[in-house]
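Let's practice the habit of predicting before peeking. Look at the sequence and jot down your guess about where helices and strands might fall. Then scroll down.
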Amino acid sequence: MTKAKKEPSVPRKKTAREEKLFQNLLRTTYEFIKGKRYNPLNRLLLIDRLQIHPDHLDIFDQVLKHLKDVGHVKVNQEKYLLHQTTQKSLQQGPPQIDTDIETLQQTKQLVEKQPPFNRAEDNREDIVVGVIRLHPRGFGFVEVEGQEVDIFIPKPYVNGAVDGDRVEVLINRESVSEKGPDGKILSVIERKRSQIVGIIAHLRDKHPMAYSSLLGDRAFVVVEQDSLKKPKESLKVGDRVLLEVTDWGSQKTAPHAVLKEKLGSISDPTIDIQVAILEYDLRQEFPEEAKKEALAFGTKVARQDLEGREDLTELECFTIDPDTAKDFDDAISVVKEKKHYVLGVHIADVSHYVKPGSHLDKEARLRCNSTYFPGKCVPMLPHELSDNLCSLKEGVLRLTVSVFLTIDFQGNILNSRISRSVIKSKKRFTYKQAKQVLDGELKSSHKLTLQELETLCHLLKKKRAERGSVELTMPELVLLVDTDGVATGTEVVQYDITHQMVEECMLLANETVAKHLSSQGKELTWRVHEEPAAESLREFAVLVEAFGYKLPASPTPEDIQALFVTIPPGPTGQYLATCYIRSMRLACYSADNIGHYGLSLEHYCHFTSPIRRYVDTIAHRLLFEPAYDKKTIEAICKDASDRERLSAKAEMSVKQLKKLRYLDKLRKEKEWRQFEAVVTRIKPFGIYFDLIELMLEGFLHISELDGDYFIFDDKRLQLRGRHHGMVYRAGDPLFVLVKDIDFITQEATFELVSHETTDKKAADKKTAHKVERKKPKKRQIL
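Done guessing? Here is the structure:
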């Protein structure tokens, strides 16, 4: 009997809300696929990269089908890529980062009318103004004055804004999570800067193109031919240039700029720091007026400056700092008596020299902090103060503010007092020297005092643990450079007991000053740290479980403490510690005291580093001088927080480039050199890892993992081979080769050599299915 033909199903008509969502996803997906840096991805990877909500997968599948049906994309081996005819059309005309969307004639009018979020057109309550802070990966956060939680801006919705711009934002009220709301940049109200630094990446089509990481997703800028004093051949690929932006472009068109100055080649490491100073608009040279004020103090403490100060010149105190330190902010003394210790923390009295309203004060206020690059410091104060008169050097008189604390043998604070003083440091210890003295490897007349300080440190650490503070003792990688800025090696600095001794003393002094000023009712530059979002902690708990450890869905600080006690030393512990830090919000300065979550303190401020932080100088003034009004404190806190983040970005950019230079040097010294690495993150599209020697992040796409077809397990956060069971998970050791280093985009690409899984069954199967490796082809490196 012939089967009856099945009636074709009639597609259900989309609701108005679904139609809006369809049009929004259609535009976002098409713009993403036709981007110049897009590599063909399958459906699963597109969902991950575009952050498609699970509830919207059906609509997203309709979007992919529509793009395929109208001929704008094609599918090859399950991967979506731009259709060849469409690709050709995009290559015509002047250089563009993204072209317009006029080819989508069927949906153009709807797309232009619909905002990316559901809202009433006249609901202006959803539109706010703030300052955007961009992440190097393209997304950003907008800080809105008077609003505690920042607005997250996904990469597709940055809309041409640059870090620091004042922007108008449309808030998506339907996507608000515990981490905060999402939003889209509607317009740039005020540009933060007019100049940018770039690297010439292409010389073609009569338009040199420069790459600038500052521009995020629209990383290339057109250098106007008319601005070149000579023909375009005067610019070479790899030239670092200072550009004046004439047109910031849009999501569809590239920015345009004129050449202001050639800075040198990317191949020249001697100018790395100078370029970073320009790129991040750091203040380097001091005004003549500020220099004159600093010079006027002379090189020695004046006799009249000693009047009214507590004389501590006979007290045994010393400094403990890194090997390369030149500005010594703090000295420590400890005296053990019959029933208690007397701890003294002595801080350079910068406020004696830097008076409110002076030229030194105005410049320090603009800088807010020192910036530390490998082998060089851009100081907050002229070197006459930072490296000399305010630096607590060994054997010379220095003006200080001293905090004395009486502590019993159980670690309880019995009383405290604060005074202006004068000291003469008896010894300048490095951390290494102090550790050698404690270990009996180096003789010192201060050994007994160091031992008493170590005992006191353990008491203070115990008290800190009791109040719920989580201590993460992570090593620091220090990049060693020569006088020309060339990286010569690395050194891993362990967070040993000498570092802990100094930190505990500084934390206690900061807390004591905060409590003292609070008790006087003074407005203060609080150092605050908000509690993490519950959602972030839940995500961290899921990650911990993937490693075989247990953590409640809403962990307390005590739970976190217990977790890290159980994890043995090694890559896993360091990785989880890093992930825990990432799950927390950034600490900042505030005129309102909300406490410090990470330290589990109700009262905390910065006081112990006035040479390199302006807020510390303010804390010193508040101890002995008239109070500031809240409005002034609020302005200082905002500027200090902003400059702190800017300095961190500048420092990281130089460290990243220096690491890549050193990596290039190592692989050239030994052909086919293998680098040991450890997997840090697993994503549906590949794995992230850190090179152990350099603590440099790398990435391998899922297609570069040999021997199997890998499937992402979102519950266990691992990639598992469908056929042979090979498993990739965070903490697995790897060996990789360097394939290429692009110094223009400052990215390295790698090739997998071998992988040791922590899954025994998978390891057994791996042995049975070994894949023969071939040497990669040599590639030219810029």
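How did you do? The radius of gyration is 29 Å.
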